[in-house]
Design goal:
CATH class of the largest domain: Alpha Beta
Strand content: 15-25%
Family: Belongs to the LysR transcriptional regulatory family.
Oligomer: single chain
CATH architecture of the largest domain: 3-Layer(aba) Sandwich
Protein name: DNA-binding transcriptional regulator, LysR family
Keywords: DNA-binding, Transcription, Transcription regulation
Radius of gyration: 24 Å
Pfam family, one: LysR_substrate
Number of strands: 11
Number of domains: 3
GO molecular function: DNA-binding transcription factor activity; transcription cis-regulatory region binding
Structural class: alpha/beta
CATH topology of the largest domain: D-Maltodextrin-Binding Protein, domain 2
């Protein structure tokens, strides 16, 4: 078995489709089919069979797919440890980040790090903060940036805290919010619960949702064009003087803050590249990282 064979099994198990698997791996369908047949001959089992709706794995195939994930992780970790034994800081850093940070913060952070360590490459996975915790737990990534704690029991460090605000192009009054159109956006369940709990403590009526969009930056554009108000992290309107903001306060009159954290498993610090990146991230001013 070659390393690529384990990758074939993993991707095929994810895609459940020969055509899509070939596209992901950049190989022809005949070559992929031939390689699958060779893997089956090597283990003397039937790994997959074709159905009307794509590829189906046999129990033996499911077991091989589980082994493939473990094998690929072990191979990657062996290579990382060998590279880390040298004196140079090099390798591929696997990073998980939610959409907002990936778009507005991460490019500059990675660029600054690469200026100091040009031999480091990056592989970035964009996901919800809650999913990033799962990626960390499975060691599919080295470090993860998240917007809330999510009960992570590994290593974590707060990089930035920013106030949450009510943002609108027109000046609005706090007590009028239930009657005004609100622009909502898809976000993590825990953050959604935070906003819903705050709303419930301040208003007896449900918010008037004028529209729901997929991402925070789309929500920003709607607010800028006067289509409603939104409850958002204040930094997305940091340089926009035309947007009126009302800070969200808790029952004690303190501003409600949203954290940005870097998380990782302690054993990842054994890799020099990862350790150096974490130390670097802790020194960066995230408030001005645009």
């Amino acid at each position: 078995m070659e390393d690529r064979d384990w990758l074939i099994i993993k991707v095929l198990h994810e895609q459940k489709n020969i055509t899509k698997t070939a596209q992901v791996l950049f190989i022809s369908q005949p070559a992929l089919t031939a390689r699958i047949r060779q893997i089956e001959q090597e283990f003397d089992v039937k790994m997959v069979y074709r159905g009307s709706r794509g590829i189906h794995f046999t129990p033996e195939g499911d077991y091989l797919a589980e082994c493939a994930q473990n094998m690929l992780t072990n191979i990657r970790q062996i290579k990382e440890q060998v590279v880390s034994m040298g004196t140079d800081i090099k390798g591929t850093l696997l990073v998980g980040s939610p959409n907002y940070l990936t778009k507005f913060k991460l490019p500059r952070l990675l660029g600054l790090f690469k200026e100091q360590y040009p031999n480091v490459e990056f592989n970035v996975v964009t996901a919800w903060s809650s999913d990033i915790c799962s990626l960390l737990q499975n060691q599919d990534i080295h470090v993860g940036f998240v917007r809330m704690d999510h009960g992570w029991r590994g290593e974590k460090h707060i990089l930035h805290e920013e106030p949450i605000c009510i943002a609108s192009k027109q000046e609005i009054k706090f007590n009028d919010l239930p009657q005004l159109p609100r622009i909502d956006y898809q976000t993590d369940v825990s953050y959604k619960m935070l906003l819903n709990n705050w709303w419930g403590k301040n208003f007896s009526q449900s918010p008037k949702i004028g529209m729901t969009v997929s991402h925070l930056d789309i929500c920003k554009g709607m607010v800028v064009n006067g289509l409603g108000y939104a409850i958002v992290p204040s930094t997305i309107f940091k340089n926009d003087e035309n947007i009126h903001q009302i800070a969200l306060m808790d029952n004690d009159g303190k501003p409600i803050l949203r954290q940005t954290l870097i998380m990782y498993q302690k054993e990842m610090l054994e890799l020099k590249m990862v350790r150096r990146f974490i130390d670097f991230a802790k020194t960066v001013d995230f408030n001005n990282l645009i």
